[in-house]
Amino acid sequence: MSYWGQKLLLDPASPIQEEMILFHDHAMVLLLGIFSFVAFLGMKLILNKFSSRNMLEAQMLETIWTIIPALLLVWLAFPSLRLLYLLDEQSKADLFLKSTGHQWYWSYEIPSLESFDSYMISLKDLNLGDYSLLEVDNRVTLPYNVNTTVITTSADVLHAFTIPSVGMKMDSVPGRLNSMNMFLNWPGVYYGQCSEICGANHSFMPIVVEAVHVHDFFFESA
């Protein structure tokens, strides 16, 4: 959950989000080094009053400034590709959750357990401490430390099933099923929203996932 004035990324609630934050830090270190070096050279060029009429070519310099950027790109590309394939990895699931986007609410189904619709709670019905435009009448309850495969589709137009703190964002496409693994690290309440403009009430499609102990999950679902 993000807060007003927050400077850092959300606390990771899944291994995927932890990997994303690590890659972000890795890329920022690289970009900060490049920016500092370019800024230093820029200042040197501005302040340097020397010139050389005999400096016509520099093969070694050209070789260096070709090889070093290539190595930096490789240093950035390999972790990026690793994370990209990790996002698409499909491990054995212990539980399945199907989400269907509608204009403008979500329908959920956990096979053999339950199915329900989830609508946003209007401002006049919020309780003290509730979050505006993020609370729903029916939360999705899932067990933590359990491999869950989330399958999403749409009943009308394009939607996007997104939970930032879990590192999940999938397009909900009519007539198509997209899936992604979700592994919640610990109990908590995780908020998300539809991230694809889907009409006039696009902003009123929140997603709320509550992670509980596996015993509590099956007790509530019974």
UniProtKB/TrEMBL annotation:
<keyword id="KW-0460">Magnesium</keyword>
<protein>
    <recommendedName>
        <fullName>Cytochrome c oxidase subunit 2</fullName>
    </recommendedName>
</protein>
<keyword id="KW-0249">Electron transport</keyword>
<feature type="transmembrane region" description="Helical">
    <location>
        <begin position="64"/>
        <end position="87"/>
    </location>
</feature>
<keyword id="KW-0813">Transport</keyword>
<comment type="similarity">
    <text>Belongs to the cytochrome c oxidase subunit 2 family.</text>
</comment>
<feature type="transmembrane region" description="Helical">
    <location>
        <begin position="20"/>
        <end position="43"/>
    </location>
</feature>
<keyword id="KW-0812">Transmembrane</keyword>
<feature type="domain" description="Cytochrome oxidase subunit II copper A binding">
    <location>
        <begin position="92"/>
        <end position="222"/>
    </location>
</feature>
<dbReference type="Pfam" id="PF02790">
    <property type="entry name" value="COX2_TM"/>
</dbReference>
<keyword id="KW-0679">Respiratory chain</keyword>
<dbReference type="GO" id="GO:0005507">
    <property type="term" value="F:copper ion binding"/>
</dbReference>
<keyword id="KW-0472">Membrane</keyword>
<keyword id="KW-0186">Copper</keyword>
<dbReference type="InterPro" id="IPR036257">
    <property type="entry name" value="Cyt_c_oxidase_su2_TM_sf"/>
</dbReference>
<dbReference type="GO" id="GO:0042773">
    <property type="term" value="P:ATP synthesis coupled electron transport"/>
</dbReference>
<dbReference type="GO" id="GO:0005743">
    <property type="term" value="C:mitochondrial inner membrane"/>
</dbReference>
<dbReference type="InterPro" id="IPR001505">
    <property type="entry name" value="Copper_CuA"/>
</dbReference>
<keyword id="KW-1133">Transmembrane helix</keyword>
<keyword id="KW-0999">Mitochondrion inner membrane</keyword>
<dbReference type="InterPro" id="IPR002429">
    <property type="entry name" value="CcO_II-like_C"/>
</dbReference>
<dbReference type="Pfam" id="PF00116">
    <property type="entry name" value="COX2"/>
</dbReference>
<dbReference type="InterPro" id="IPR034210">
    <property type="entry name" value="CcO_II_C"/>
</dbReference>
<comment type="function">
    <text>Component of the cytochrome c oxidase, the last enzyme in the mitochondrial electron transport chain which drives oxidative phosphorylation. The respiratory chain contains 3 multisubunit complexes succinate dehydrogenase (complex II, CII), ubiquinol-cytochrome c oxidoreductase (cytochrome b-c1 complex, complex III, CIII) and cytochrome c oxidase (complex IV, CIV), that cooperate to transfer electrons derived from NADH and succinate to molecular oxygen, creating an electrochemical gradient over the inner membrane that drives transmembrane transport and the ATP synthase.</text>
</comment>
<dbReference type="InterPro" id="IPR011759">
    <property type="entry name" value="Cyt_c_oxidase_su2_TM_dom"/>
</dbReference>
<keyword id="KW-0496">Mitochondrion</keyword>
<keyword id="KW-1278">Translocase</keyword>
<dbReference type="InterPro" id="IPR008972">
    <property type="entry name" value="Cupredoxin"/>
</dbReference>
<feature type="domain" description="Cytochrome oxidase subunit II transmembrane region profile">
    <location>
        <begin position="1"/>
        <end position="91"/>
    </location>
</feature>
<dbReference type="InterPro" id="IPR045187">
    <property type="entry name" value="CcO_II"/>
</dbReference>
<dbReference type="GO" id="GO:0004129">
    <property type="term" value="F:cytochrome-c oxidase activity"/>
</dbReference>
<keyword id="KW-0479">Metal-binding</keyword>
